[in-house]
Design brief:
mainly alpha; 5 helices
């Protein structure tokens, strides 16, 4: 399960907007919204890319994208 609040916090602490994230991933804002709300999933490649872009630790990636 995806932790939307932790994701939004990670995005904002780096000075980015959700629009910046959608542009970076090459998807539109609606697609990002769907991913954030559980209608579709982030791909492994998107998670790996976001890890580098947002400078996330392995623990942060687990807490955001793989919440139990």
């Amino acid at each position: 399960m995806f932790d939307r609040n932790k994701f939004k916090y990670a995005v904002s602490t780096k000075g980015y907007t959700l629009e910046n994230i959608a542009d970076y991933l090459g998807i539109n804002a609606v697609t990002l919204w769907r991913k954030m709300n559980g209608s579709s999933d982030f791909t492994r490649a998107e998670i790996q890319s976001l890890r580098g872009y947002l400078e996330l630790s392995v623990q942060e990636v687990d807490e955001i994208f793989f919440v139990q």
